[in-house]
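Q: Given only this backbone (198 positions), what sequence would you predict?
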């Protein structure tokens, strides 16, 4: 009788251990797949969900880097038509009020669509961009307003050849201390059109 009770106790303990192991496995599996989902969030999704209100770039370099990320996805036709409309609104968050005033949302979207079509027609792909070191950014002040200028290296692939170009950015710090893009200009026609506030 005692032996039977001991066997039953052992069997119950074994079942509890098995259930515990299975539960632990599923918990870890769900946790890992959750991490995988976060890890696999695409660049397009990250850019479309970017929170400018709470996470506006802190530096000149970060502001330009974010702009380059949007441009790379746009020029490579990674956004759907609806997503491009939303991405265009996001891009405008990085722009200075003076640039926004001379560049309406509709005009900017049409210009962006035209640039994308140019890339498609000419079989171009925006391969990469290289930001300068912080020490290479030029700063100056005029009437207590802070400005910054920097050059970004860009590599474009045209069929099997690569073309290197530069884009020069001009930024101005706004009343809230945020660096806003006042304009940018591409040195080569193959890199894409720029916009500059006059």
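A: Predicted residues:
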């Amino acid at each position: 009788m005692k032996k039977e009770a001991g066997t039953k106790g052992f069997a119950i303990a074994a079942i509890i251990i098995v259930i515990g192991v299975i539960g632990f496995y599923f918990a870890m599996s769900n946790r890992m797949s959750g991490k995988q989902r976060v890890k696999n969030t695409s660049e397009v999704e990250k850019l479309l969900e970017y929170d400018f209100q709470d996470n506006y770039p802190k530096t000149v370099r970060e502001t330009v880097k974010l702009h380059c990320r949007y441009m790379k996805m746009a020029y490579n036709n990674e956004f759907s038509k609806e997503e491009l409309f939303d991405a265009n609104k996001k891009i405008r968050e990085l722009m200075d009020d003076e640039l926004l005033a001379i560049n309406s949302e509709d005009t900017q979207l049409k210009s962006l669509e035209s640039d994308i079509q140019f890339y498609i027609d000419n079989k171009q792909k925006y391969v990469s961009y290289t930001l300068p070191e912080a020490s290479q950014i030029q700063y100056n002040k005029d009437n207590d307003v802070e400005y910054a200028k920097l050059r970004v290296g860009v590599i474009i692939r045209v069929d099997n050849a690569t073309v290197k170009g530069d884009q020069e950015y001009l930024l101005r710090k706004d009343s809230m201390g945020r660096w806003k893009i006042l304009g940018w200009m591409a040195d080569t026609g193959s890199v894409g059109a720029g916009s500059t506030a006059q």
